[in-house]
Design a protein that fits this description.
This protein is mainly β. The chain is about 10% helix and about 30% strand. Bound molecules: zinc ion (ZN) (2 copies). One zinc ion (ZN) binds next to loops.
C-alpha cells in the first residue's frame, strides 16, 4: 500500500500551524452543540489555529452563534467570547472582485496572522 494511503483520513497538516490540540470537556461539548444558531457541528478535539512557535496560550475557535464567537484557550483551559482579529492583508484580485483577505484568528492573538493567503 502506498504510504500516502495511511494518512488519507487525516486533514492536511500545515507545517506552519501549531501542532497543539485540546480535548473539550463533555459539558462544554454539550453546551456548544446545543447552542441556538450554532454555526458548527462540535468535534471533541480542536487543533490550535496559531502559527507554530507562537508565544502565549494556544487558541482555537469553538463555536459561532449569531455574531458571537467562542474561543478556547489552553493549557489554562478557558472558553471566552471574543472578536475576530481585525487584520487584513489588503484586497486581492481584480478591482471588481476585490475581497479583503481577513485574518481568521482571535483578536489579540500571538504569532503571525492567518488567512487563506496570509501564511
Ligand atoms: Zn498553539
Ligand atoms: Zn490576526
Amino acid at each position: 500500500m502506498p504510504a500516502a494511503m495511511t494518512h488519507a483520513y487525516r486533514e492536511p497538516v500545515d507545517k506552519r500551524q501549531c501542532p497543539a490540540a485540546v480535548t473539550l470537556p463533555p459539558a462544554d461539548l454539550d453546551r456548544f452543540d446545543t447552542m441556538p444558531d450554532a454555526a458548527f457541528t462540535m468535534v471533541p478535539q480542536l487543533r490550535c489555529e496559531l502559527v507554530a512557535g507562537h508565544g502565549g496560550a494556544h487558541s482555537a475557535l469553538v463555536q459561532g452563534s449569531g455574531y458571537d464567537l467562542h474561543w478556547a484557550s489552553w493549557p489554562q483551559y478557558a472558553v471566552e467570547k471574543a472578536s475576530r482579529c481585525p487584520a487584513a492583508a489588503g484586497p486581492v484580485g481584480p478591482p471588481h472582485l476585490q475581497e479583503p483577505e481577513i485574518c481568521l484568528l482571535r483578536e489579540g492573538h500571538p504569532g503571525d496572522h492567518y488567512g487563506e493567503t496570509l501564511f
